[in-house]
Write a structure and sequence with these properties.
By secondary structure, the chain is mainly beta. The chain has a domain at 25-185. It is 7% helix and 48% strand. It has 2 helices and 32 strands. The chain has helices at residues 2-23, 39-44; strands at residues 25-38, 47-50, 57-63, 66-71, 75-80, 88-94, 101-104, 107-112, 115-120, 128-133, 152-166, 198-199, 205-208, 211-215, 219-224, 232-238, 243-249, 252-257, 260-265, 273-279, 287-289, 293-298, 311-316, 324-330, 337-340, 343-347, 353-357, 365-370, 375-381, 384-389, 392-397, 405-411. The chain has a 6-stranded antiparallel β-sheet with strand order 2-6-5-4-3-12, with no helix packed on it. Strands 7-8-9-10 form a 4-stranded antiparallel β-sheet, with no helix packed on it. The longest helix is centred in the N-terminal third of the chain and has 22 residues, at 2-23. The chain starts with a helix and ends with a strand.
């Protein structure tokens, strides 16, 4: 008892000290302050400029002998790809806030933050804006309840680390704001005969005949582009939530979301009709199909959901009303994918570009593995493969499936 009595002052002191520590907590936040510009000023800056080096390449789009490469949130590189072994970076179209494009005839459609631009590209080296369609896409999504000023565009962020003293329990994560669209940071006809271009699997824009289909976070938005210079919005079809990509095949649209794959019938092009859906674990999800099978990559990550279990799913879609999961293959960090013949090309992020022998989709194996690039999206086209990667734009000669080799590379600066 006497021993315990002697210890009481020390115990009281510890309790007092712990109480003080609890009341004096510090936490360092990363604060991102938006930089605004008026919409009028930003729109006045849209147009063709001198070619610039690739900095942060995103989605790719093939049209005729040209390759259009998105520079994430900056605009579009115009590359003369008439000789894929020696592509030439010709011009840059300045479009702040741009991440998606589509082309039909002499017209290019591009998002500019929440709006959509229509540009005349009769001369791809000197483009001209013909139409601005407002509020096609919802405002960019932000964390922690940040609400943007919808009357302006956010063109940049100012980063500042701030340490704050707290009395009590800190609000972990408060003050950390970032633009989720920056984490988006991707069947072919003859290039020479194309009337509508060819997008990669990461695209949110796609053109079928005289209709442009776009997806925003929750809906499928349909434009009649019979008059290419003046797209007319004809329908908005609710799909779900966290919609990410759109891939057309014949009279169907395959739509990827973070929670599942959706199939819509576009026999009536202006009024897409829901056919079916397949749910999956919460992951980022581009999808392609060859009509018999659908291939879906599921990427884990902070924004996408989960931190492990990235994978590729193979589904039987011969009966589109009842798609069925057949097989799952483990992956590391997958993004876009594409298929040509019996070869399935998968952009596995930091793990590189993987080429599967898909003659039997239930027993696929990696035939080639290009590890010297961080692959994002891919377009297979007439014996050539075009890849958008962290390192730049890489093209492969795949005319002989038994001897695939790098053909050319436009490297980042």
């Amino acid at each position: 008892m006497q021993r315990i009595t002697r210890l009481l002052p020390a115990i009281v002191a510890l309790l007092f000290l712990s109480g003080c520590l609890k009341d004096k907590v510090t936490h360092t936040y990363t604060l991102l302050k938006p930089v605004y510009k008026s919409k009028e000023l930003v729109l006045s800056e849209v147009g063709s400029t001198t070619a610039r080096s690739l900095g942060n390449p995103g989605k790719i789009y093939v049209y005729g002998s040209y390759l259009f490469v998105n520079e994430i949130n900056k605009g579009v590189h115009v590359i003369d790809n008439s000789n894929p072994a020696a592509p030439v970076n010709k011009r840059f179209i300045n479009i702040p806030g741009n991440v998606d494009i589509a082309v039909k005839g002499n017209t290019l459609y591009a998002d500019i933050y929440t709006d959509m631009l229509t540009l005349d590209i009769a001369d791809p080296l000197e483009v001209e804006v013909t139409e601005i369609t407002r509020n096609v896409f919802p405002e960019r999504q932000y964390v922690n309840g940040f609400v943007a000023d919808n009357s302006q565009y956010i063109v940049d962020w100012i980063r500042k680390d701030t340490t704050v003293d707290y009395e009590g329990t800190p609000c972990w994560g408060c003050g950390l704001w970032f633009d989720l669209a920056t984490f988006s940071n991707t069947n072919a006809q003859s290039m020479a005969k194309a009337t509508a271009g060819i997008a990669g699997s990461m695209s949110r824009f796609n053109i079928v005949s005289n209709y442009l289909y776009t997806v925003n976070k929750s809906s499928l938005v349909v434009f009649d582009i019979s008059n290419q210079a003046n797209p007319a919005k004809v329908n908005t079809v609710p799909v779900g939530w966290e919609i990410e990509t759109i891939y057309p095949f014949k009279d169907k649209l395959f739509i990827g979301s973070s929670t599942g794959m959706f199939i819509f019938d576009i026999s009536n092009a202006a009024a897409p009709a829901f056919v079916s859906t397949v749910s999956h674990i919460r992951r980022c999800d581009p999808v392609i199909t060859d009509g018999q099978y659908a291939y879906v990559t599921l990427r884990a990550g902070t924004v996408c959901g989960g931190t492990t279990d990235s994978q590729m799913q193979v589904l039987d879609v011969t009966n589109v009303a009842r798609p069925a999961l057949l097989k799952t293959y483990p992956l590391d960090n997958p993004y876009g994918l594409g298929k040509t013949g019996n070869l399935l090309w998968v952009c596995d992020g930091k793990a590189g570009l993987k080429v599967y022998d898909a003659a039997n989709p239930l027993q696929m194996n990696v035939k080639y593995h290009f590890k010297n690039l961080e692959a994002y999206d891919v377009i297979p086209l007439d014996g050539k493969i075009i890849v958008s990667a962290k390192e730049g734009i890489i093209q492969f000669d795949a005319g002989n499936p038994e001897k695939i080799a790098e053909l050319s590379r436009i490297s980042k600066h």
